[in-house]
Amino acid sequence: MIIGLDVGGTHTDVVLIGEAGLLRQAKVATDHSNLFECVLAGLEQVTKDVPSQSIRRAVLSTTLTTNAIAEGKLAPTGMIVSSGPGIDPDCFRTGEHYYAVSGSIDHRGREVQPISESEVRKVAGKLQADGIRQVGVVSKFSTRNPKHEMRIAEILGKSFDYVVLGHRLSGNLNFPRRIATAYLNGAVHPVHKQFFEAVRHSLAQKGLDIPIFVLKADGGTICFEASMDTPGQTILSGPAASVMGSLLFASETVDTLVLDIGGTTTDMAVLVRRIPLLEPLGGEIGGYKTLIRSLRTESIGLGGDSTVRLANGEIQIGPDRQGPAMAYGGSSPTPTDALFVLGRARDGNAEAARRGLQPIADRLDVSVEQLSHRVFDLACTKIVDAARKMIDAINSKPVYTVRELLAGYQVEPREILVLGGPAPFFAQRLAQITGLQANVVPQWHVANAIGAALAKTTSEISLFADTDRGIAVAPEEDYQQQIKRDFNKQNAIELACHLLRKKCIKAGADEADLEIEVIEEIQFNMVRDFYTAGRNIRVKVQVKPGLIREYPRIAKLIFNYCPLPGAI
Amino acid sequence: MLKTKGKTGLVFFPAFDWAISPTHPEREERLLYTQDQVFEEGILDIDGIIEFKPELATHEDIRRVHFCVPDVQNVITESHLISAGGAKTIGIQVLEKNIERGFALVRPPGHHAMRVVHGARGFCNINIEAVMIEYLRKAYGIGRVAIVDTDCHHGDGTQDIYWHDPDTLYISVHQDGRTLYPGSGFPFEMGGPTAAGTTINLPLPPRTSEEGFLYVLDNAILPIISEFKPDLVVNSAGQDNHYSDPITNMNFSAHGYAELTSRLRPHIAVLEGGYSIEGALPYVNTGIIMALAGLDYGNVHEPDYQPEKIRQGKDITRHIEKVVAEVLRVWKEGPEVREKNLRGGKFAHRDRNIFYDTDQILESQSETIRVCPRCSGYLAIDSETDGGRRILAVHIPRNACDECRDEGYKLYDSTDISRYNRIFLQDRLSDQYLTRS
Ligand SMILES: [Zn+2]
Ligand SMILES: [Zn+2]
Hints:
A: globular, B: 2 domains, 11 helices, binds zinc ion
């Protein structure tokens, strides 16, 4: 059996999934000031009387690190940054404890200027004196040659709790993002560590000694132990959970638009023939552009509980949420209240909903039913417009080869999958507006938790080889090797796959789920003075986001378990 | 947080799967390290920098500028359509006011491609700046355009296309033609009879450095542009003036290119040549983008940059001052020369040979323009290659008077086709491009 847990903005959902499908589900109100208690309460509810040894693992998708960033509750983190010529590194300052030091490496990974050890020692001393416990070390082009970052780490020695090196975080080139990513990893490290150690400890005390996995922003899982090296990967796992939850029911032959309509926001994503799209470089959170491998999702401030008001005579929905809908005892009218007025939602106080919307209807001189239609339509239209914008952005992403440009696959969703609280009410109208088939994800209210439970372990590795310099580097794995002149792309791919396999096993992957694919393989002849001086090879391999191999059977069981969406 | 002064567009198209030949300077690898540098600097993440996907230029876009022999399909590859399309994309975004300035960082280049195209010369098949400009003129009705060509080679193709166009100011600053391909680009080359003075050539001696380039910019290029009053300034941003370029002999630097860009403030920059793919291009391109975006480029320089080592000698400075003085005289003379030409014959001729070094073709051209007092005159080019292919090309300019248009059509319709493989008509008045064969 597998446990899936998803901490949402309002509720924390937990599911227990086994051979027979969805065995148990639980819902706990999310208490952001005490996530630990609500996570534990949820886990306890679904594991009651279940023998510990029959649980394979628990996969947790929490808002822990995301909230820490959103609320600015980040641990003070020192940054040592070596840039060399280029944009002034002070433009990328992450806070007070940020030091630019000398040292420079060029685009091929050649050292241009060594670092100054005494300068680094001085910075280390200052950081220690300031009580800093986490340090990020980043040099420009460290993915081509991590020498400077590694030397700085050596100098820092064991005087800090956590030292994160930029080249270990991603093989992608982007110095400012590498700085932000290293910083965030350092800044969420203590809270991540404390939280999961506490969860594991408490479970162990209750006799539940089960492996804990954490959901990552790319929709894959990683075991808790491995996540300690780079806890930043777990940032933004919320939207990833809903994408993974919808994957079960997405078409394998056409593109799908996934809409997770929550209380405060609607998260959207696109699946290309059931494959989730990834951000080209990494996700963005709280104004930080990062190299954290993330699913391509977009979030708008519009959900079932968004506040409805008049602004300059126009109906405005969101982006704020004042509380639950008035039908559920809230104080300001919402799209959910409109659904009550229209008689679609039934399990609350329709009168209160009507009362909330009446003043707005009066000011517009329409009936409250007419207003409710307008509110609901506007909500649907805004969601559809935002989705179209996202799809346009995906389709206009530049490519760099003639072949790709001419091939130019254009994403064009043919179906919509809706999940989240108000999903059933929205699906039909969204279908009318778009002319597409819109389905509600079965078990829509716990789909995120199911997605977390069934997600498989993912990973990516970049390998860079330069036969002229005689080196191969897989920065994320701290792998460097001398290579011979005849090293070629095929060798590079084999080496990268081997390293990826090792990395995935370490992250807790099941051998059987390791479907490795090559996502980039380019080889350039380096020509100097009309002779080929060597080959410049760039390879990227991944285990793409997807579901564990048992999923088709489980999906079928979950599908049968509840009435079809059309029946609602 | 970095933020640009105005919205700055970028089309980046390194064509990683296209080369003239495996070891040719114009090969797959050319923009690889530039890409690495631009990506690593995080330039595409800067607030206010917008990357656009290049569109494909159409065959009509090309026929608006060129006479392609035997036809467009035969002288280009898809990558040419993309690189011209990339320039066009930036142009459109500027004129739609979605961006203030933009840079088409594309290959292959185009400034050696002339009006008649039998093949590739100087690594160029079609003139990507001209394709862009003429599209913008058609689509947005813009009038006066200034092109400043800062590639190390004389942009003889662009000069040829705009030789007879008084509304396009073409300024080329380049290494002296007596020391470098294509061997042209002297101050006395000042434009055709009806457009005299709107072609400006500034040949600079080998080993000219930042000081010389900026002197020419401040004392010739900028004053001439401000008198010309263009609606649009285009920079053919070749980067082979760099001190590390393997096929030229100049001493310009990334900092110098950035400074030049920042003073010139072109609306559109288009990459041309530049073959120091590791030592120059990554830094020059970064500098140009930063300068266009109005960002501080003070710390952008090559790893081995030592300004004192490449400083130009006093003799070079004196030589450049003379060139500038001469060019200013040519610029001033322009209007008089045009007046004088109008008093001369009704038609003007020039005969010349054009060598296509890349494709090894020798072309002989005989060009006739009607020296018209009301427009820049219709143009007829009789062109024959050493391979025995002969064509007649008739160009009716954008501002053609009725008479020039009628005479142009008459020539196109009545010429005996048996002497030619093809007869072309480029009617810019009605945007019509016809071929007889
Ligand atoms: Zn050149
Ligand atoms: Zn005329």
